[in-house]
Design goal:
The structure holds two protein chains of two kinds. Chain A is mainly alpha-helical. Chain A contains twelve helices and no strands. The longest helix of chain A is centred in the C-terminal third of the chain and has 32 residues. The chains are: A mainly alpha, B alpha/beta.
């Protein structure tokens, strides 16, 4: 297992070019091309701003401007959710490679995660623009934690992506199941409502068990709330858990590896 | 020094238990995830196969479809792992198993060349250096910047081939990919293989083209149902393989013939039963089976449908195609001796009978037809059980499948027993000549015409 894991570093050139290919192929043939990576989150944010300013006015205290608050959580969630749903099907859609070419299969789910991370990063300038527009600037010191949060999320997402990709080969149901679980998961995470809300606090222990809660809160504290980040212990703990999870995911993937070429 | 070594390799493919029913939910409920991942049914693709390919040699693997050739290749390539035994390969491998397997349709040929090259283990710089050569080899200079989805399948394959071959491997695995291009491209591929050989690289070739194996390979292996039947000198292996193919083909033809005869017999019986029921006590015999043949034998001559009809006053009880020694056979080589033996039984002695034989090719063209009447044999007497043999000294037909008509009838054409296209045989030939008939021939040249 560890020798395979070491090989992964050798494949970084391959991963790099596959991620680039994924991004290029995505917008090939569209007029705006690469700009969609900016435009998509921009439009999303505009829709939310409109809905929550004029249609469903949300005046809850402490989370104003609400659209901005929500955007801080939705951007990383989108990265997480689309990574997982793409990764789950990645081995099946890349079946040709696994069956016909000597190809390290783990590259495929990892590419899904990384390609979506690029989209996430490209969405950040939009977020920054709106932070400036609303004159809602985060503390500079907090921003040091931002790469940490991204790194933790990357590890966590990759761990799940590896497991899902390997298991989906054997249980195709996972892809459908996953779509629904992700919807539920989204609403079970304090993204569109603040974790400071009273009825959330009451079930704090349930929310605490949800790993993405800590990522969402961290992003909100770093980008949205004023004052020093109070959630860093949770973030680091999640980071540690993610590393263990990643090793477990890789182990599972490695164990099932030989079956891929036959079952896909 | 060996480039490839397979030692007692077996490969068992697993069919997972009731896969369409094993859902995640049921697996979770029954806590059987790990058990469901265990194989329940298995399929033995390779059994105890061992062979070695010395460095710098070209090794051919032949065998019927499903004999395990591609599995062997995938094991050598490392795409799948052997269930037992050991596979050892020395040096960089490139596998021409499926060409262009990693191409992404939306991006250009240029970008695909790079990504495909990286997948096959090249570095960016190496590809950069070989890029022009690859494009030139694939003959895609004008299209290299177009998205791959706009390529024809030939262009796609050529590009895939060009990339794979320019990986410059120590060991090249080829799985029946020479059929990808037109004549010119195929030659280019063969030239490339020859260049590989000259440079001391190892090639493992899986193919159905026996010709290629004989011409190209230093050694060959014949796989049959996952078992290595024989290996060694390509000519000998190909010969053994062909003999086995002929044997099983003969078996198939024998089965087909038996079925046709049985079918015709049953059909005749049904018709007879039907008529007897209808016409009650009508005298049996004279008009017999009123098939079109009876009314107009000539029209039927050219209708290539199989069947049997006739009054059966003289019945053909058995037809045997035999080889030179008289042994029953269904596969012959062009130029072989062939005999067609008829066993007949006359209900009553008769003095009006003609034996006839016709040979038809697969398109239903009559290649030859004759009968005893045409050959001026005047019938005198036939009674009881009798035999007639039609012997051909040399079967001068080109390769193909042929059918035989046999018949006994009166001189005026009234059929006693007519077997239409019920018997099938195959003619094999190593020469790819065309037409139907191969006259005995030879070529002569003046001394200034020379062949290699």
């Amino acid at each position: 297992m560890f020798s395979n894991l070491a090989n992964l570093i050798r494949y970084r050139g391959l991963i790099q070019s596959l991620v680039a290919r994924e991004l290029k192929a995505r917008y090939r043939g569209s007029v705006l091309g690469f700009f969609w990576s900016f435009i998509n989150p921009l439009l999303l944010l505009l829709v939310y701003s409109f809905v929550f300013t004029y249609v469903l006015e949300n005046k809850s205290e402490g989370i104003q401007p609400y659209a901005l608050f929500m955007f801080c959580g939705i951007l990383p969630w989108t990265w997480f959710a689309s990574s997982l749903s793409e990764a789950a099907g990645s081995l099946i859609s890349g079946g040709n490679l696994i069956k016909k070419v000597l190809f390290p299969a783990e590259v495929l789910p990892i590419v899904s995660v990384l390609a979506n991370m690029v989209h996430f990063l490209l969405g950040l300038p939009i977020l920054v623009a709106f932070l400036i527009y609303y004159a809602h600037l985060p503390d500079a010191l907090d921003l040091v934690w931002f790469p940490v949060a991204v790194l933790v999320q990357l590890t966590f997402t990759t761990a799940l992506a590896l497991m899902l990709a390997a298991l989906t080969v054997h249980f195709r149901d996972i892809r459908d199941l996953l779509a629904n679980i992700l919807t539920l998961w989204f609403f079970a995470t304090p993204i569109i409502y603040p974790w400071t809300q009273a009825n959330v606090r009451r079930f704090k222990w349930i929310f605490d068990m949800n790993p993405f809660t800590h990522l969402a809160i961290s992003y909100q504290e770093i980008l949205f709330y004023n004052g020093p980040i109070g959630h860093w212990k949770w973030l680091l703990a999640l980071g540690a858990v993610s590393i263990v999870l990643f090793l477990a995911g890789y182990w599972l993937f490695d164990r099932l590896r030989d079956s891929f070429a036959e079952v896909v | 020094m060996n480039a490839i070594e397979l030692a007692n390799v077996s490969k068992v493919y697993r069919r997972y238990s009731g896969r369409q029913f094993a859902t995640l939910k049921s697996a979770l409920l029954q806590r059987s995830i790990l058990r469901d991942l265990q194989p329940s049914e298995t399929f033995q693709a390779l059994t105890d196969v061992s062979f070695t390919v010395p460095k710098g040699s070209t090794y051919g693997v032949i065998g019927r479809n499903g004999s395990g050739k591609s599995t062997a290749l995938k094991l050598v390539a490392g795409i799948t792992k052997p269930t037992s035994g050991a596979v050892r390969v020395d040096g960089r491998i490139s596998a021409l198993i499926e060409l262009g397997a990693g191409f992404h349709p939306e991006i250009s040929g240029r970008e695909n060349v790079f990504i495909n090259g990286i997948m096959l283990g090249l570095t960016k710089r190496e590809i950069q250096r070989r890029f022009d050569e690859i494009v030139e080899f694939a003959e895609l200079k004008d299209f290299i910047d177009a998205p791959v989805k706009t390529y024809s399948s030939g262009m796609y394959m050529r590009l895939g081939f060009a990339v794979a071959i320019h990986v410059d491997p120590d060991v090249l695995l080829v799985d029946e990919v020479l059929a990808v291009g037109d004549e010119g491209f195929t030659h280019k591929c063969l030239d490339k293989f020859a260049e590989f050989r000259r440079r001391g690289r190892t090639i493992l070739l899986v193919t159905h083209s026996l010709n290629l194996v004989e011409r190209f390979c230093d050694e060959a292996l014949w796989l049959d149902a996952g078992v290595a039947r024989t290996h060694g000198d390509p000519k000998r292996v190909v010969g053994a393989y062909l003999t086995a193919v002929e044997h099983s083909e003969g078996q198939l033809l024998a089965d087909a013939t038996a079925k046709a005869v049985e079918g015709a017999r049953r059909e005749g019986q049904d018709r007879q039963d039907g008529r007897e029921g209808q016409d009650g006590g009508r005298l049996e015999g004279h008009d017999g089976e009123m098939s079109p043949a009876a009314t107009d034998p000539t029209s039927n001559m050219f209708r290539a449908t199989e069947g049997r009809w006739g009054s059966r006053e003289v019945e053909i009880t058995e037809v045997v195609l035999g080889d030179r020694t008289g042994q029953p056979a269904f596969v012959f080589h062009s130029g072989d001796a062939v005999s067609i033996r008829l066993k007949v039984r006359a209900q009553q002695p008769t003095d009006d009978f003609v034996f006839g034989v016709g040979l038809f090719n697969a398109e239903g063209v009559c290649c030859y037809g004759t009968n005893t009447f045409l050959e001026d044999m005047n019938p005198e007497r036939l009674d009881g059980e009798a035999e007639a043999a039609f012997s051909i000294e040399s079967l001068d037909l080109v390769e193909g499948t042929y059918k035989v008509d046999v018949a006994v009838h009166k001189r005026d054409g009234y059929p006693y027993d007519y077997h239409r296209l019920l018997y099938t045989f195959r003619v094999k030939s190593r020469t790819r000549d065309v037409g139907i008939y191969r006259p005995r021939h030879r070529w002569t040249f003046s001394p200034n015409v020379r062949f290699k």
